[in-house]
């Protein structure tokens, strides 16, 4: 069994006494080097989970354990070293006046020596393919480029957990695929747990495991393929079905046998031409 | 559109003045403001003018550009000159019109004050022309460091300055977007009486403020998530380094100050 890196134990959270519960008695675990996706419609509590993981919010009930440490007011600064987060809005998380200043910001906060900073800036910017923009100012970058810088700034502090909190929601399709490719590549190289929080089912494809949130509770927890199979239920809790999944559903209705749930175009194509050869 | 946006009046360059440590530039200018008042003879003024003009030429910024930047203060300089011309009544009477006498002392005094004024403005604008706002911020943070002892929030002030500098272009782009959005809804920013045009700014400012507050909130959260906990124990990427050229400039400036003392009263 892999080492547990994040564990939620009966966590409940609400923003205030008179507010409704945003999370209701949630328990789950995330393991080392695991790629996990948390999906749910707006207001399902998925972003709250992210903020609870690095102590931006604290639960009213239950306990959150990150890497063996319970998240409390005293431990948040240590925990934030292990948990890196990329937020939704590319502009509102860019602190530095240039790309390299922004990457340096997290390291400056942790008192890392200047030589080491320069080395890490080089490494992380080339990991996300932004090396030639070192001295560029943020207003000259596209949204996708800013998000890649945000990923680089998080990587520079060598986190064990990388959380993407709707990091692609404000990007165009190209920026979106760019970020997802960058992140997947980085996860391979650096062995970190990747938590993708999204409302777009298309983005859960690369995950090993998907947690579906609904109304503040965990609705389901399974591999992407099994999640994709429950189309009617997903629609009912307000999630859009990706094109490929909808197409294979229609094909099935039309009497074409599709055995394996397809995650992307290639898989569906594979499924189609092989299924006919069997017939 | 906003790609060519330059904050302040910084002109990029590689000249000696550009490459000087911003702290050197600020210190020299600070003392220059004082020594300008030492001058009281033709030779001492010439020393000051020579220093200012040499600095100006070493920046390699087109002179026309520098003078254009001084445009708004020309009026003030001429006004001071005329004021001194009228008010001073020393020396011999040069012209006498309708009871108003212009004295030779007035002419001299007017010239002297105008030259001082011009030199001060020229030298200080050379600072902003050759130094990026962020360099100035770093220099101020470094130079105010001793104030930390009396709990003056130097680091916070510098961070505030650098974040505002970073967000100026972003907010300008946003203003542009909002004004277009409002114009498409029928708000008229350009024509009509002044009162109407001022009123038209309201639907521009309100969304701008709302979004600025939202940005501030999100930025604060992002900064916290990245481990920001104040200036304590922080290291810095941007480094200020005093080099050989800074030393040379300091020595040169001391020689000029000494020359000024010597040529005084001549």
From TrEMBL, chain A:
Keywords in alphabetical order: ATP-binding, Cell membrane, Membrane, Nucleotide-binding, Translocase, Transport
First-listed, main subcellular location of the protein, grouped into a coarse class: membrane
GO MF, one annotated term: cobalt ion transmembrane transporter activity
Occurrences of domain ABC transporter (ranges): 6-240
Pfam family, one: ABC_tran
Alphabetical list of CDD domains matching this protein: ABC_cobalt_CbiO_domain1 (cd03225)
Subcellular location: Cell membrane
Name listed for the protein in its UniProt record: Energy-coupling factor transporter ATP-binding protein EcfA1
Topology of this chain in the membrane: Peripheral membrane protein
NCBIfam families: ECF_ATPase_1, PRK13635.1, PRK13648.1
Gene3D superfamilies, sorted: P-loop containing nucleotide triphosphate hydrolases (3.40.50.300)
Top-level lineage group: Bacteria
Homology family: Belongs to the ABC transporter superfamily.
Gene, per the UniProt record: ecfA1
One GO cellular component, as annotated: ATP-binding cassette (ABC) transporter complex
Signal peptide: none
TrEMBL record, chain B:
Segments passing through the bilayer: 26-53, 65-87, 107-129, 247-263
Membrane topology according to the record: Multi-pass membrane protein
Gene (UniProt): ecfT
Species for this entry: Lentibacillus kapialis
A Gene Ontology term for the protein's cellular component: plasma membrane
Quaternary context: Forms a stable energy-coupling factor (ECF) transporter complex composed of 2 membrane-embedded substrate-binding proteins (S component), 2 ATP-binding proteins (A component) and 2 transmembrane proteins (T component).
A GO molecular-function annotation: transmembrane transporter activity
Family: Belongs to the energy-coupling factor EcfT family.
Keyword annotations of the record: Cell membrane, Membrane, Transmembrane, Transmembrane helix, Transport
Biological function: Transmembrane (T) component of an energy-coupling factor (ECF) ABC-transporter complex. Unlike classic ABC transporters this ECF transporter provides the energy necessary to transport a number of different substrates.
Localization of this protein: Cell membrane
Protein name, per record: Energy-coupling factor transporter transmembrane protein EcfT
């Amino acid at each position: 069994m892999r080492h547990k890196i994040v564990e939620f134990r009966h966590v409940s959270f609400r923003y205030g006494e008179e507010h409704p519960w945003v999370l209701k008695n949630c328990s789950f675990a995330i393991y080392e080097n695991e790629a996990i996706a948390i999906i749910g419609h707006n207001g399902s509590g998925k972003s709250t989970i992210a903020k609870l993981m690095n102590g931006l919010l604290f639960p009213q009930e239950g306990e959150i354990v990150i890497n063996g440490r319970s998240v409390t007011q005293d431990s948040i600064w240590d925990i934030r070293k292990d948990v890196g987060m990329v937020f939704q809005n590319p502009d509102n998380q860019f602190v530095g006046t240039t790309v390299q200043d922004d990457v340096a910001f997290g390291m400056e906060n942790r008192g890392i020596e200047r030589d080491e900073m320069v080395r890490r800036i080089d490494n992380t910017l080339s990991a996300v393919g932004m090396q030639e923009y070192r001295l560029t100012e943020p207003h000259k970058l596209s949204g996708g480029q800013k998000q890649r810088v945000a990923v680089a700034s998080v990587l520079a502090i060598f986190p064990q957990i990388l959380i993407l909190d709707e990091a692609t929601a404000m990007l165009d399709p190209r920026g979106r695929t760019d970020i997802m490719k960058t992140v997947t590549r980085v996860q391979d190289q650096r062995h970190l747990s990747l938590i993708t929080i999204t409302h777009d089912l298309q983005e859960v494809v690369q995950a090993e495991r998907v947690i579906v949130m609904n109304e503040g509770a965990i609705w389901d927890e399974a591999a992407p393929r099994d999640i994709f199979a429950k189309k009617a239920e997903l629609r009912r809790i307000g999630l859009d079905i990706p094109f490929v999944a909808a197409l294979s559903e229609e094909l099935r209705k039309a009497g074409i046998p599709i055995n394996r749930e397809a995650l992307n175009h290639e898989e569906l194509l594979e499924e189609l031409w092989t299924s006919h050869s069997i017939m | 559109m906003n790609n060519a946006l330059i904050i302040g009046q910084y002109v990029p360059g590689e000249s000696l003045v550009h490459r000087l440590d911003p702290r050197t530039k600020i210190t020299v200018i600070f003392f220059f403001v004082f020594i300008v008042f030492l001058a009281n003879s033709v030779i001492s003024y010439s020393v000051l003018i020579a220093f200012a003009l040499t600095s100006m030429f070493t920046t390699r910024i087109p002179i026309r550009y520098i003078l254009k930047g001084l445009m708004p203060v020309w009026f003030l300089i001429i006004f001071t000159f005329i004021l001194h011309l009228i008010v001073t009544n020393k020396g011999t009477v040069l012209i006498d019109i309708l009871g108003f006498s212009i004295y030779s002392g007035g002419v001299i005094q007017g010239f002297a004050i105008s030259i001082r004024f011009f030199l001060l403005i020229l030298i200080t604008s050379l600072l902003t022309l050759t130094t990026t706002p962020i360099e100035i911020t770093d220099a101020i943070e470094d130079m105010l460091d001793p104030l930390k002892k009396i709990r003056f929030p130097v680091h916070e002030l510098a961070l505030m300055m650098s974040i505002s500098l970073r967000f100026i272009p972003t907010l300008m782009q946003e203003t542009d977007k909002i004004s277009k959005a409002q114009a498409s809804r029928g708000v008229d920013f350009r024509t009509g009486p002044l009162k109407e045009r001022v009123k038209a700014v309201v639907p521009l400012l309100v969304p701008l403020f709302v979004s600025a507050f939202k940005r501030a909130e999100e930025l604060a959260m992002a900064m916290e998530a990245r481990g920001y906990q104040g200036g304590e124990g922080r290291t810095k990427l941007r480094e200020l380094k005093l080099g050989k050229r800074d030393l040379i400039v300091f020595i040169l400036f001391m020689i000029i100050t000494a020359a000024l003392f010597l040529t005084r009263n001549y």
